[in-house]
Amino acid sequence: MPVIEVMSETLASQVAAGEVIERPASVIKELIENSIDAGARKIEVEISRGGIAMMRVRDDGCGMSPADAARSLERHATSKLHSSDDLNGILTLGFRGEALPSIASVSRFTMQTREADSVEGTEVRVDGGQLHEPHTVGCPVGTSIEIRDLFFNVPARKKFMKAETTEAAHIDHQIRLHALCTPNIGWLLRKDGRTVLDLPATSDRRVRIEAMSGSESGRDLVTVPSWKGRGISVEGAVLPASFARRGRRHQYVFLNGRPIEDSVISRALKESFRGALQEGLQPAAWLWLQMDPTLVDVNVHPAKREVRFRDSSQVRLAIMEAVELALRPPEREVIVPMSREAPPAATPSVRLETREGVQQVVRVETTSSTVNEEKASAEIAPVWQQTHEEQPELEVEHDRVAVTPNFRVIGVLSDQYALLEGEEGLVLMEPQAARERIFYERLLKREEGIDSQGLLVPVLLELDARDVDLLMRHQSHFEDAGFILESFGGLTVQVSAVPAFLKSDEIRPVLTKLIDSILDRNDRVKRLAYEGFASKVARAGSLIDGWSLTTIKPLLDELFTCDLPYCDPAGRPTLVQISFQELNRKFGKN
């Protein structure tokens, strides 16, 4: 049996680093959280080559004495916990006491710090866990930490680093996450000598959201007013259902000043939009929660990303009530004129309650019990007739393609399938799958020249840093698919051409759906095969327009010009037939 030995301090710190330091963004997270805990009013971050070469975080917080500066680099040293009882009510961001020694053990680390009542500061240097003698230095009040050559002494970790642009995008996201959490702090980010983020401090959270989400999203923000109940307070903002996307990347939730990820909160947000979201989509939201720290455990994840609530059901209900209240428009009364024979006192009022994407509800209230109900119903009927009109039967002609089956459109099933009558029985068509097949084959035939249209006025899209990185990394694939994309500086992408089948108002939703689908499957893959990319473009395009009975004929015509009309790119059927023979058997007619 191997001899058991106690690890050296350096090795123990490197092991600890493996738990909390996944990439440069993890280092930035730990350092800026310490700056926030130190009471900083301004935090400046500078990175070089995606943070792999250099990262520097400077704050104007309280600073440290020479003794505290040296002690901060010892494992388990912390100013934030003094007894086990403190674990029951943690209000600071950092508290484990392992971040600084872990970072210093896998980098070339330099820290300068000075307290407000000191005339000089302290500098401490560590090279791969080897501590140099601290010495005095002139520096401003606060703390500045510089990290160079991350993982220089742990090559096995360094080889798992992503491209510099990808690592920079993760750092950008981490800073923006904490900047949203702390609008009262000013933030500055420089990448390779260029300022990419400069946010002044503000007391208005909505101002910070609008500054970081872009003007397009900012115009549509729905404020969630301060709501208190069930032992928790909730406030923030959400975007309408039309901005929903796959995954929870666009949900920013802060609990007692800490950015968190929690499935309970995501489910509550989705349920608040019930009836308005497509399956698989999540709403965009920015929520600040406050609750008794003894009712939540933030010490369940090494990187402190997850929490555990003592009573998650109450948290879920509180968020649903707050967000539903924000989404509910003020009631308005519409007076419906009555016929001349109706007595004035009997005029009914119709109260309309609408929510985006939710079916309209009509409630009739009267001021007299003698209202002529038939006349009232006659006035209200048009509200409902729009959804109950009988659709005309459409005869589908197929002069253009001789091999197209002779189908007759007979109806719609559950707003998902078109019902067709064929020569051999009933045929169900899945229009979205059909559109995917059509778009996919258009893209695959790009060697003949894909139909792409230039835009008279290029479209500017403000996106998440990680979205911009993905678009730029796969720029050649987008060009093959008919998109011409260019970086416009910061987090803005300019779109100057798109596939011909896209309308101008479809550009953003198609691109964001495409980004989400690629991220779902491809976060660890360096390159997409074009066929796989084309299938994702096709799926994103197919989700934009709805369909109706009047669009089934041209859709069938296009579908049967495809090489493989009976399945979508993923192999799912576009058409399913139930023969007359099978129907007769089920009805016992054989």
Give a structural overview:
Strands 1, 2, 3, 4, 5, 6, 7, 8 and 9 form a nine-stranded mixed sheet that branches. Strands 10-11-16-13-14 form a five-stranded mixed sheet, sandwiched between helices. The protein contains 18 helices and 29 strands. The chain is α+β, with helices and mostly antiparallel strands and 590 residues long. Strand 27 (484-487) and strand 28 (492-499) form a beta hairpin. Helix content is 33%, strand content 26%. The chain has three domains: 9-201, Heat Shock Protein 90 (2-Layer Sandwich); 206-327, Ribosomal Protein S5, domain 2, CATH 3.30.230.10; 408-577, Ribosomal Protein S8, Chain: A, domain 1, CATH 3.30.1370.100.
